[in-house]
Amino acid sequence: MRMNGRMFGLAGADLPSVRPDDVPDAYRAITEGGWTVDGNGAYLLSALEVGYHGSTSEKFEDIIHFEATVNGRAMMDYDLPVSAPERQNRLLRRSIAYACLALRASPVESAYEILGYVSLSGGAMSDDALTASVTFCTRRPGIPPYIGNIWDYSEESLLELSKDDAVRMLKDRGPS
User: Which residues pair with 18 in a beta bridge?
Assistant: First the structure.
């Protein structure tokens, strides 16, 4: 697990354990759909791959950026309060839980490590409410990583999770 300074300031060294119940139903359904390895070797969440209508050769510098684009989603937040502390905590838990569920469902026999990225930042709307996004991509030899030096990102709170992190953080039942 890696995080930048803003995420460390937001969450501290010990991120909370999360539960599947922290994930909205629509996002849980995405993870339950499993993963697909497409004809070019990209690891994609099956439910998101079906909805993607672009070409793998257009506008992507490499397969990692293609994976991050297809697998990336803003986290649902319309049901959360606007007040910063409560919104921040619930949005972070929700985003981490979704990333953990998806990583836990990733292929056991993967040729490459699949990583999840959780990002929280001020919104682009006039109210500047905190928003989050989550994406997934592989780490491959010979291709620069999706996120190089995570400490270079200062405009958002950023967290990188591996499957091992997800298994450790995701609690199936009981209090978190």
Answer: 170
With tokens 């490499």, the residue in question is: 62
* pLDDT, tens digit (0-9, with 9 covering 90-100), for 107-142: 988 899 999 999 999 865 555 678 899 999 999 999
Q: Please give the sequence-ordered ranges of beta strands (E in DSSP) within the chain, or none if there are none.
A: 2-3, 35-37, 43-45, 73-74, 113-122, 130-139, 157-161
Nearest one of 119, 100, 67, 102 to 170, comparing CA atoms: 100
CA nearest to 157, candidates 101, 103, 117: 117
pLDDT in tens, 140-157: 999 999 999 999 999 999
Nearest to 118 by CA among 97, 139, 138: 97
Q: What are the angstrom distances between the C-alpha of 50 and each of 18, 20, 54, 70, 110?
A: 28, 23, 11, 10, 20
What are the C-alpha distances in Å from 35 to residues 90, 115, 148?
26, 13, 25
CA distances from 45 to 63, 79, 87, 159 (A): 14, 25, 27, 19
Of 6, 9, 4, 176, the C-alpha closest to 94 is: 176
Structure tokens at 89: 């905590």
